[in-house]
Design goal:
14 strands; 10-stranded mixed beta sheet; TIM Barrel; 345 residues; two-stranded parallel ribbon; single chain; DNA polymerase, domain 1
Length: 345
C-alpha cells in the first residue's frame, strides 16, 4: 500500500478527493503527519471513523523505525534505516550546544564514484523517496530537538532532485514541518542543470564539494569534473544573487600533500574572487582501500589562516563521531556485508 508520509498538501488533497473525504481533510492529515507524534492512521482523531477506515484500506502511515543506532562519546549518534530497495542508509544526529543537526541521506549508494567516499564504493542501489528522506528526521529519538538539517549523507542529493525538492517543500511549508529554509543546507558535487533548478525552486543554502581548485586533481578525486568542470559550476553560481540571508559554501576535504599547499590557497583565492562564500575545511576520515591520507592538524590550521588572510571566511569543521564509523557509508557497508554473509535481513 502507498504511504501517506512524504506526500505534499496537493497530493493529500488528491487523496482526500479520491476517497470522497471533505476538502479540509488534507490539512488535517498534513497536521498529523508533520506536526504531531502518531504511530498509525487511527490516531488521526479529528478525522471521522469512516475516513480513517477508508485511508487504512488504501494507505499506510509510512513512517519506519530505525534499524539500530550507535552513540559516540561526543554525543553524536549514527542511525541506520532500512529502505524499500532492501538496503540501508545512514543518518547522523549531531548535537552542539544549542544547535542540533541531522544529516540525512538521499540515495542508497552513489553513482559519482568519488575517490574519498565509502558510499561510492557501494555503487548506486536506488533513490530514496521524499518520505524516506523525511523519515530520517521524523523517526530519530531527537526529532523534536532538531534545529538544522544538512543533506550531506549518503548519495548525491541533486541526482535525486525530484524527491529532494519535494522533501524541502514539506520541511519548509507552513502546513508541513514549518522549518526556515535558512536552517537547511543541500550539498552537491556540482551537477549544473539540477543545481540551477534547486536554486530556482528552493531557498535552502547550497554547499558545493570543491576539494581542489586544480582541474587535474579534482578530476582524479571526483570524476564528475569531466562532465561539469568546476569553472562552469562557479560560473553558474556567479549568475545568482544569493542576497544577504542565503549562503553558498564550499566543502574542502583536506588530503595530505595533495590539496593542502600554499599554491592551493592562492588558486582558491583566485577562482573564488567575487563570490560571497565561506569554505569549510574537513578532516579526512580514512576509508578502506584508498591511497589518500588526512592532512595534519598543523597544516589544516595553517591552511585556514592563509585563506582567511586572503579574505575568504574559512572554518575547520569539528570531527564528530569518529568512534562510530563516522564517515558516510561505513556503517551501512558493514551491515550490507553482514546481510550478504548471513543471508538474514
Amino acid at each position: 500500500m502507498e504511504p501517506l508520509f512524504g506526500k505534499t498538501l496537493e497530493e493529500l488533497q488528491q487523496v482526500a478527493g479520491a476517497l470522497e473525504l471533505p476538502g479540509f481533510s488534507a490539512r488535517q492529515m498534513a497536521d498529523w503527519l508533520y506536526k504531531k507524534k502518531i504511530g498509525s492512521i487511527d490516531e488521526m482523531s479529528n478525522l471521522s471513523k469512516d475516513a480513517r477506515a477508508a485511508l487504512n484500506a488504501k494507505y499506510t502511515l509510512g513512517m519506519a523505525p530505525y534499524r539500530n543506532v550507535q552513540t559516540s562519546t561526543d554525543g553524536t549518534k549514527k542511525y541506520l534505516f532500512n529502505t524499500t530497495v532492501g538496503k540501508f542508509v545512514e543518518t547522523a544526529y549531531i548535537p552542539d550546544k544549542d544547535r542540533h543537526t541531522v544529516c540525512v541521506s538521499t540515495q542508497v549508494g552513489c553513482k559519482m564514484g568519488c575517490l574519498f567516499c565509502m558510499t561510492g564504493k557501494q555503487g548506486f542501489q536506488g533513490n530514496l523517496t521524499a518520505g524516506e528522506i523525511l523519515n530520517q528526521l521524523r523517526s530519530i529519538d531527537e526529532w523534536e530537538q532538531v534545529t538544522n538539517i544538512v543533506y550531506m549523507g549518503m548519495g548525491e542529493p541533486l541526482d535525486n532532485l525530484e524527491a529532494v525538492l519535494k522533501s524541502l517543500e514539506i520541511l519548509t511549508s507552513a502546513w508541513g514541518f514549518a522549518m526556515s529554509p535558512r536552517r537547511i543546507t543541500v550539498s552537491t558535487i556540482g551537477i549544473i542543470p539540477a543545481m540551477k533548478e534547486f536554486l530556482e525552486k528552493s531557498e535552502a543554502h547550497l554547499a558545493v564539494s570543491l576539494h581542489s581548485p586544480f582541474e587535474s586533481e579534482r578530476k582524479m578525486l571526483m570524476p564528475i569534473q569531466q562532465v561539469y568542470p568546476l569553472e562552469e559550476v562557479l560560473q553558474e553560481i556567479r549568475s545568482w544573487d544569493f542576497g544577504r540571508q542565503r549562503r553558498v559554501s564550499f566543502e574542502y576535504i583536506m588530503f595530505r600533500d595533495l590539496n593542502d599547499t600554499p599554491k592551493h590557497v592562492k588558486e582558491l583565492a583566485r577562482i573564488l574572487k567575487g563570490i560571497r562564500c565561506r569554505i569549510n575545511l574537513i578532516r579526512f576520515h580514512p576509508i578502506p582501500d584508498t591511497p589518500l591520507d588526512t592532512s595534519t592538524n598543523e597544516r589544516i590550521n595553517a591552511f585556514r589562516e592563509a585563506l582567511n588572510d586572503q579574505g575568504i571566511v574559512t572554518t575547520v569543521r569539528a570531527s564528530r563521531g569518529e568512534d562510530i564509523y563516522a564517515a558516510c557509508g561505513l556503517l551501512s557497508t558493514k551491515e550490507l556485508v553482514k546481510k550478504q554473509e548471513t543471508g538474514k535481513p
